[in-house]
């Protein structure tokens, strides 16, 4: 399958600072990217969906001013957690899907980023 | 709205034995996809198996097979000849039909332990 990378794999930051997480599709063009948040021992919670070149669509309850998503190219999406606080500590997973013209386009997952806010 | 329910928070199986993980879902759509994903301790999401709702035949991938009951909206995963490497969280997921349609909707997951 296709490869999706995330960077960094883990990050520790001080409360009040901003953190940027990158998600790249390495061998395919990702027309749609998804950002998930996963708390310990819980399922993946979709935060937002972004299509290349357009604004992200945020799920209900997700603060768009706090979690800035940019999908400027077909291989890169970024999630910026602004003014991070300890409650933002979590595991963030990106996922990417390309358009093949087929009825089914597989969604590939990155390895995740563990964010710890002190 | 579509929902996915996994009623078994934890399951355990003896190595080389067979285990079945349950999943039910709710949708008003007639065409859709169903998935089982595995999340090992590394937390990398791995696609185990996919089923298209319009296909009556149950999907199989080596030791993994599903029992898809469309009328009952049930989609269970059977793991045969369980191996230690099968220990992981397993998530059932639903997605609307169509190449560019919809997001994955996940169940809460089942933690599978494999005893040597």
Provide the structure class of chain A: mainly beta
Rg of chain A, Å, rounded: 14 Å
Major β-sheet annotation of chain B: 6 strands, mixed
Shape of chain B: globular
Mean pLDDT of chain A: 92
Shape of chain A: globular
Describe the protein's topology.
The complex is a heterodimer of chains A (118) and B (116).
Chain A lengths: L3 E4 L2 E4 L5 E7 L6 E7 L5 E8 L5 E2 L8 E7 L2 E6 L8 E8 L9 E3 L3 E5 L1
Parallel strand pairs in A: 2-11
Antiparallel strand pairs in A: 1-3, 3-8, 4-5, 4-9, 5-6, 7-8, 9-10, 9-11
Chain B lengths: L2 E3 L4 E5 L4 E3 L2 E3 L5 E8 L6 E7 L7 E2 L2 E6 L4 E6 L8 E9 L8 E2 L3 E6 L1
Parallel strand pairs in B: 2-12
Antiparallel strand pairs in B: 1-4, 3-9, 5-6, 5-10, 7-8, 8-9, 10-11, 10-12
Description:
The complex is a heterodimer of chains A (118) and B (116). Chain A has 118 residues and is mainly beta. Chain A is 0% helix and 52% strand. Chain A has no helices and eleven strands. Chain A has strands at residues 4-7, 10-13, 19-25, 32-38, 44-51, 57-58, 67-73, 76-81, 90-97, 107-109, 113-117. In chain A, the strands form two sheets. In chain A, strands 2, 4, 5, 6, 9, 10 and 11 form a seven-stranded mixed β-sheet that branches. A four-stranded antiparallel β-sheet of chain A has the order 1-3-8-7, with no helix packed on it. In chain A, strand 7 and strand 8 (76-81) form a beta hairpin. Chain A is globular. The N and C termini of chain A lie far apart (36 Å). The model of chain A has no long low-confidence stretch (mean pLDDT 92). Chain B has one domain (3-115): Immunoglobulins (Immunoglobulin-like). In chain B, 0% of the residues lie in helices and 52% in strands. Chain B contains no helices and twelve strands. Chain B is globular, with a radius of gyration of 14 Å. The N and C termini of chain B lie far apart (41 Å). The interface between A and B is medium-sized, with 26 and 22 residues.
């Amino acid at each position: 399958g296709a490869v999706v990378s995330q960077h960094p794999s883990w990050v520790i930051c001080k409360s009040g600072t901003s953190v940027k997480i990158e998600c790249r599709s390495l061998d395919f063009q990702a027309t749609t990217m998804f950002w998930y948040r996963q708390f310990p021992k819980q399922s993946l919670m979709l935060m937002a969906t972004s299509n290349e070149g357009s604004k992200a669509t945020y799920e209900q309850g997700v603060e768009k001013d706090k979690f800035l998503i940019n999908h400027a190219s077909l291989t890169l999406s970024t999630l910026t957690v602004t003014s991070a606080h300890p409650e933002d500590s979590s595991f963030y997973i990106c996922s990417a899907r390309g358009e093949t013209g087929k009825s089914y386009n597989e969604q590939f997952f990155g390895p995740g980023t563990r964010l710890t806010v002190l | 709205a579509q929902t996915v329910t996994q009623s078994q928070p934890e399951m355990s199986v003896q190595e080389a034995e067979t285990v079945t993980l349950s999943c039910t879902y709710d949708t008003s759509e007639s065409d859709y996809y169903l998935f089982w994903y595995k999340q090992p301790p590394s937390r990398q999401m791995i696609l185990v198996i996919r089923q298209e709702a319009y296909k009556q035949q149950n999907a199989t991938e080596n030791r993994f097979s599903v029992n898809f009951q469309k009328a009952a909206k049930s989609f269970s995963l059977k793991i045969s000849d369980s191996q230690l490497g099968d220990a992981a969280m397993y998530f059932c997921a639903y997605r609307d039909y169509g190449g560019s349609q919809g997001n994955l909707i996940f169940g809460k997951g089942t933690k599978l332990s494999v005893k040597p």
